[in-house]
Amino acid sequence: MICFALLTQSEVYSAGIQNIEPKPEKTIKEQEPNWILERLDILLGFALGLLGTVIIDVARERRKVTRFRNAASSELKQLLADLNIYALHKDSLINKEKALLWWNSSQ
């Protein structure tokens, strides 16, 4: 009985193999869109990750520039104030020497 079942099963299996028609192979042009569509989520995730990284880096650089600009602005204001004091004293030779001494000592 077991032999009959195996024989019947193998006959059905071999008959099934013979009835399978070979599928035509896809050309490269037909395969490319499927490849892109299958991996579109990966490509989209990569692109969004890269865009997010660029946005974060730009924001960090802008903060650095703003901090630098604010620091430079305060230093420039102080320098202009120092130069104004020097300019007030430049007419008089005595005051000019005092201003130069003060200028050198402040640096």
Layout of SSEs?
Blueprint: H1 2-19, H2 28-38, H3 40-88, H4 93-106
In short:
With 107 residues, this protein is mainly alpha-helical. It has helices spanning 2-19, 28-38, 40-88, 93-106. The chain starts with a helix and ends with a helix.
- Radius of gyration over C-alpha positions, nearest whole angstrom: 42 Å
Segments where pLDDT lies below 50 for 5+ residues? 3-7
* Pattern of helices and strands: HHHH
Largest sheet: none
**What do the pLDDT scores average to?**
70
Structural class: mainly alpha
Number-wise, the strands total 0
The percent range for helix content is over 70%
Q: What is the general shape?
A: rod-shaped
How much of the sequence is in beta strands?
A: under 5%
Distance between the termini: 109 Å
Number of helices: 4
Describe the structure.
It is a single chain. The chain has 107 residues and is mainly α. 86% of the residues lie in helices and 0% in strands. It is built from four helices and no strands. Residues 3-7 have low confidence and may be disordered.
What features would you highlight for this structure?
mainly alpha, 4 helices, 0% strand, rod-shaped, disordered N terminus, membrane
